[in-house]
Write a structure and sequence with these properties.
Blueprint lengths: L3 E4 L4 E4 L9 E4 L4 E6 L6 E3 L6 E3 L14 E6 L5 E2 L11 E8 L2 E8 L2 E8 L6 E10 L5 E14 L1 H4 L3 H7 L2 E4 L2 E4 L9 E7 L5 E5 H5 L9 H5 L12 E11 L4 E12 L20 H7 L2 H20 L1 E4 L3 H21 L14 E2 H11 L4 H13 L10 E2 L17 H16 L8 E2 L9 E2 H13 L44 E2 H20 L3 H21 L9 E2 L5 E2 L9 E2 H9 L8 H12 L1 E2 L2 E2 L2 E2 L25 E2 L3 H10 L3 H11 L8 H4 L7 E4 L10 E4 L4 H13 L2 E3 L3 E4 L9 E8 L2 E9 L6 E5 L2 E3 L3 E3 L7 E8 L1
Parallel strand pairs: 38-42
Antiparallel strand pairs: 1-2, 2-9, 3-4, 4-5, 6-13, 7-8, 7-13, 9-10, 10-11, 11-12, 12-19, 13-18, 14-15, 15-16, 16-19, 17-18, 20-37, 21-22, 23-24, 25-26, 26-27, 28-31, 29-30, 32-33, 33-34, 35-36, 36-41, 37-38, 39-40, 39-42
Helix pairs in contact: 7-8, 7-19, 8-9, 8-10, 8-19, 9-10, 10-11, 10-12, 11-12, 12-13, 12-14, 14-15, 14-16, 16-17, 16-19, 17-19
The chain binds beta-D-glucopyranose (BGC) and 1-deoxynojirimycin (NOJ).
The site of beta-D-glucopyranose (BGC) has 6 residues, from loops.
Length: 814
C-alpha cells in the first residue's frame, strides 16, 4: 500500500489517499500565527501560544481520530448532493484526492462527480492570519449551480478552560457580523483586547455563527443541516458554541474555474480603543479592515504565497547537499530543516500528540532545538536564548518549561531536572559558533524574569555549570534531581499513588541518586564554557572549567564505567542502574552517546567497546533502543520509565532523539559505515518503504518507534515535535558530512560510508558561501583541503578576508 510520494522539486510530500494510517500533518505559519493542518484539513490555529490564545476548537482523541478543522462543504443545488473536497468530514468517494504538504502551506482537494475543488492553506509572512484559497472547476458538460459553505468552530481562547469550564463557557460566547465578516469576540467585553475574524471574498447568500443552528440538533459535521438544506440560517451565537460559516452560491459554466478566498485572522486593539463608538460594546475594526480588504484580493494572495515560497527557498539554500543517497538529500535539503523550524517554534507544545495545553516551551528542549535551527534565522535563535535565560533561577536551576505568550516559567510542569541548566551552555555555544556574535554574552538578562536581577548572559552560563557542581553525590557524580534528559528515570519519586505526576511529585530529598549521563554532559558543557571563557577574556575561569571537566571525566571513568559500557546512574540506595549487575535495564543508550560525545573513552578504547555493546544489545533494524532488557513491571524506585509496557517510550522504545548521539559517537571513532547505517534506520524517507509498519508521516521524524519488546515493533508514534529533528540534522550535516562551524573557521571533517565516492555541500556561514566538494581517494577519514586553489594545513577553512563572499573548497578523503 502506498499513501503518497515525495515531490522533491516542489519540496512537497503528496498524499494520494485520504485514509492514512494516522493523520499526516503540516504546520502553517512560522512566526507568531500558527496552524496545524492534517491531510484532510483537520486541526486548529492559534496565536503564539496553543494554550492561551487558541482561535479554533479541536477535540483530541476524537472518533474518527481527526475531526474538526478548516472545512469546506460543496452542495450541488440540482440534486442536493453534498461533499467536502478535503474528504473529511463527509468522507465521500473522492476521485483524484490529493494533499500536498509543502513548506508552510498545504493544498488539499479532490474531484467529485466531475467537480474539482482544491484549497490552498497558508499564513502570509508578517501577518496574523491564514488564507484559504479555494479553486473550483466544473469539469462537467453542463452548467452547475453550487452552494459553498465554509466552517470553523471558535475556541474560547484558553484551550484548557475551553475544554472544561462549560458552566461558564456556554454563556459567554459572543459574535458580531458586519459586511459579511464574522467576528468572534468572546470575553472582549471584559479583559481581552483581541478578537478573531473570518471573512470571505464573495457576496454571501447567508452565514451562521451558532453551531447548533448550522449543524442541527442530533446531527454531526458529516451532514450539517444548513448544508443539507442549501441555506444558512443567519444564526447569531449567544453563548453555547460560536462558529463561523459563510454560504456562497456559484454558477459555473462547463470548464469554468472560480476562486474564493477565506481569511481567518487574529487582531488586537489597544485597551483604551477597544470599542467604537467609545462606551459601546462594538469592536473597533478600524485597524483590521485594511488587512481584511487587502487579503481578499486574489493578486495579494498570489503575492503573499510567492513571497512565502521565496522565503523558504532562501532558508533551505543555506545548507544544501548532494550525496549518493536520495533519502539523505531529501531530509537534509528539505524536510529535516523544515522540521527544525517546527520544533523551534513549537518546542513540544502543539501537534497531534501534544495537546497544546500541557507543555509550552521546554528549557531543555528549546536549547536543543536551537542546534538545528540556529543557521537558519540566527536573530530568532538569539531572542530565544535570551528568553530562556530570563527564566533561569538565580540558583542556576531552571523551570522545566515556560509559556510562549507570557515568557514566564511554568511551575505546574515541575523543576529540578538537574540536566536542564547545562543545555543552555550547549545552545549558546552553538549560537556563538554559528554567528560569532560575542556581544550576546554581555546582554543583561534577569533571573526568573525579575526586574533588577539582570546579569550578563555569560554569568548565567557560569551559574548553569555551578548548579551541577553544587549538587554532587556520593561518587562525586551529579545528583539526578527529579530526572535528567530521561524525564522518566525518576529516582527520587517513589510514587505509589495512581495518577500522581512523575514530573511534579518528589518523595525524597535526593542526596544519593546520581546520573552518569549528566556527568558526561557536564564534561561537554564545561569544555564548551572553557572555550567560550578563553575567547571572552576570562582565562582564569577557563582554567577552572577545564579542570572541572577533567575531574568529572576522571570520576565518570572511575565510577561510571561498567566494563563494557557506561553505567546509567546510581539509584537512591546507591545501587547501579544500567549495569551488567542488573537483570533488567542493563544498558542504556544515553551515557554511551553523551559520554563519548564529550570525549570520554576516545583515548583508551572504551568508546569503541561501548559502541560495540550498543550494536550488540540495543540496535534493531528500526533504530537503537533506549535500554535493554525492558523493565517487565513497575518499580517504585525507578518511576515512570517502568510504567510503560515493554518496548514503548522510555521503557526500551527506540527513542529517536538519542540515536543521533550514537551516530555522532560512531563518527568520533571514525566508523562512517555504522554511523550512516544507524542514520538510515530512522530516516523517515528511507522508512517510507515500510510505511504500513511505520504509519507516521514519512517526511518527518517521530519521537519514538516501538522497540523489539513491543508487539508493534517498528511502529512510529508522536511525530513532529521531538529533539530528533535538531539532533539528526546536526548528526548528518556536522558529523557524517562533517561540515562544522568552529570558532576559528568552518571545519570539513566528513566521516562518510566507505562506499561513497564523494559528495557536495553548499553552506552559507557568517555571510560567506562555501562550495565544498569532497572526493574519496582512500578508505579513511583523513582530509586534505584545497581552498580557492591553495592547499591548506588541517581541516578548518580559515575565515576569508573581508569582502570575500564565496569560497570554493576541494576536499579529498584518504
Ligand atoms: C514522557 C516523556 C516526556 C515527559 C514530559 C513522559 O510521559 O514519556 O517522553 O518527556 O512525559 O512531561
Ligand atoms: C521528551 C521530552 O520533551 C524531552 O525533554 C525528554 O528529554 C525526552 N522526552 C526523554 O524523556
Amino acid at each position: 500500500m502506498t499513501y503518497g510520494h515525495f515531490d522533491d522539486k516542489k519540496c512537497e510530500y503528496v498524499i494520494t489517499r485520504p485514509d492514512t494510517p494516522v493523520p499526516w500533518i503540516n504546520y502553517l505559519g512560522c512566526e507568531a500565527y500558527f496552524g496545524i493542518i492534517s491531510n484532510t484539513a483537520g486541526g486548529y490555529s492559534f496565536y503564539r501560544d496553543a494554550r492561551l490564545r487558541r482561535l479554533t476548537r479541536y477535540r483530541y482523541n476524537n472518533v474518527p481520530f481527526d475531526l474538526g478543522g478548516r472545512y469546506i462543504y460543496l452542495r450541488d443545488n440540482a440534486d442536493g448532493s453534498l461533499w467536502s473536497p478535503s474528504w473529511q468530514p463527509t468522507r465521500h468517494e473522492a476521485e483524484d484526492y490529493s494533499c500536498r504538504h509543502g513548506m508552510g502551506y498545504s493544498i488539499i482537494g479532490s474531484t467529485y462527480r466531475r467537480i474539482k475543488a482544491e484549497t490552498l492553506y497558508f499564513v502570509p509572512l508578517g501577518e496574523n492570519l491564514e488564507i484559504w484559497r479555494l479553486k473550483i472547476t466544473n469539469l462537467r458538460r453542463k452548467t452547475v449551480r453550487l452552494s459553498v459553505f465554509s466552517c470553523i468552530e471558535f475556541c474560547l481562547w484558553d484551550a484548557q478552560d475551553d475544554a472544561t469550564n462549560f458552566q461558564r463557557n456556554f454563556s459567554t460566547g459572543e459574535i458580531e457580523v458586519e459586511h459579511g465578516v464574522i467576528y468572534h469576540k468572546t470575553e472582549y467585553r471584559e479583559r481581552r483586547n483581541h478578537f478573531a475574524y473570518f471573512a470571505c471574498s464573495e457576496k454571501l447568500a447567508g452565514y451562521d455563527t451558532q453551531r447548533e443552528a448550522f449543524v442541527g440538533a442530533y446531527r454531526s459535521w458529516e451532514r450539517p443541516a444548513a448544508v443539507e438544506k442549501g441555506k444558512s440560517f443567519n444564526s447569531h451565537a449567544h453563548g453555547w458554541a460560536p462558529i463561523g460559516s459563510h454560504h456562497v452560491r456559484l454558477t459555473l459554466q462547463p470548464g469554468e474555474t472560480r476562486e474564493i478566498t477565506f481569511l481567518l485572522g487574529y487582531h488586537e486593539n489597544p485597551h483604551d480603543r477597544k470599542f467604537v463608538p467609545p462606551g459601546s460594546q462594538t469592536i473597533n475594526k478600524e485597524s483590521v479592515r485594511p488587512t481584511i480588504a487587502r487579503y481578499l484580493q486574489s493578486a495579494e494572495v498570489n503575492n503573499a504565497f510567492e513571497t512565502l515560497g521565496q522565503y523558504w527557498h532562501r532558508l533551505l539554500s543555506l545548507f544544501q547537499a548532494i550525496t549518493p543517497d536520495k533519502h539523505t538529500n531529501r531530509m537534509v535539503n528539505i524536510w529535516n530543516a523544515y522540521q527544525c523550524m517546527a520544533t523551534f517554534n513549537m518546542s513540544r507544545s502543539a501537534s497531534f500528540y501534544e495537546s497544546g495545553i500541557g507543555r509550552g516551551l521546554g528549557f531543555r528542549d528549546s536549547n536543543q532545538d536551537l542546534l538545528g535551527f540556529v543557521h537558519m534565522i540566527p536573530e530568532r535563535a538569539r531572542e530565544r536564548i535570551l528568553d530562556l535565560a530570563a527564566t533561569q533561577l538565580d540558583t542556576g536551576g531552571a523551570y522545566h518549561q515556560y509559556q510562549p505568550l507570557t515568557k514566564r516559567g511554568n511551575n505546574d510542569i515541575g523543576g529540578n531536572f538537574n540536566d536542564d541548566p547545562l543545555w543552555l551552555i550547549l545552545g549558546v555555544a552553538a549560537y556563538l559558533k554559528e554567528t560569532g556574535d560575542w556581544g550576546i554574552l554581555d546582554e543583561p538578562v534577569p533571573y526568573d524574569n525579575l526586574a533588577g536581577s539582570e546579569h550578563p548572559l555569560y554569568e548565567h552560563l557560569e551559574r548553569s555549570l555551578q548548579y551541577t557542581l553544587d549538587r554532587l553525590g556520593p561518587h562525586a557524580l551529579p545528583l539526578i534531581g527529579r530526572a535528567d534528559w530521561n524525564d522518566c528515570l525518576n529516582l527520587n519519586c517513589f510514587s505509589d499513588t495512581p495518577g500522581q505526576s512523575f514530573q511534579t511529585t518528589t518523595n525524597k530529598e535526593g542526596k544519593v541518586a546520581e546520573s552518569v549521563f549528566i556527568g558526561g554532559m557536564f564534561v561537554l558543557a564545561a569544555t564548551e564554557l572553557a572555550a567560550i571563557a578563553t575567547r571572552h577574556g576570562r582565562r582564569e575561569s577557563a582554567r577552572k572549567y577545564t579542570a572541572a571537566a577533567a575531574t568529572m571525566r576522571a570520576t565518570v571513568s572511575t565510577h561510571g564505567w561498567d566494563g563494557e559500557w557506561f553505567l546509567r546512574a546510581y539509584d537512591d540506595y546507591g545501587r547501579k542502574i544500567g549495569s551488567k549487575e542488573c537483570t533488567e535495564g542493563k544498558i542504556f543508550i544515553e551515557p554511551q552517546g553523551f559520554c563519548i560525545l564529550s570525549g570520554i573513552g576516545l583515548d583508551d578504547g572504551r568508546a569503541e567497546t561501548a559502541l560495540d555493546s550498543v550494536q550488540r544489545m540495543l540496535a534493531t533494524p528500526h533504530g537503537i533502543m533506549l535500554q535493554q532488557p525492558a523493565y517487565s513491571q513497575y518499580y517504585l524506585h525507578l518511576g515512570e520509565i517502568s510504567s510503560y509496557p515493554p518496548g514503548y517510550k522510555e521503557n526500551a522504545g527506540i527513542f529517536c532523539h538519542n540515536n543521533p548521539w550514537v551516530i555522532i559517537a560512531e563518527t568520533l571513532v571514525g566508523n562512517g559505515d555504522r554511523a550512516f547505517d544507524y542514520y538510515l534506520r530512522i530516516n523517515p524517507s528511507a522508512r517510507s518503504k515500510i510505511i504500513e509498519r511505520h504509519r507516521c508521516e514519512p517526511y518527518v521524524y517521530a519521537q519514538m518507534i516501538a522497540g523489539k519488546d513491543a508487539p508493534t515493533h517498528g511502529e512510529a508514534k508522536n511525530s513532529w515535535l521531538t529533539g530528533t529533528a535538531a539532533w539528526n540534522y546536526v548528526a548528518i550535516t556536522q558529523w557524517i558530512l562533517g561540515i562544522r562551524p568552529t570558532y576559528d573557521g568552518l571545519m570539513v571533517a566528513p566521516v562518510v560510508p566507505t562506499a561513497w565516492k564523494g559528495f557536495n555541500v553548499t553552506r552559507m556561514w557568517q555571510g560567506v558561501q562555501y562550495e565544498i566538494s569532497v572526493a574519496r581517494r582512500g578508505k579513511g577519514n583523513t582530509v586534505r583541503l584545497v581552498v580557492d586553489g591553495r592547499q591548506i594545513e588541517g581541516n578548518v577553512i580559515p575565515k576569508p578576508a573581508a569582502g570575500i563572499h564565496r569560497v570554493s573548497v576541494k576536499a579529498t578523503l584518504e
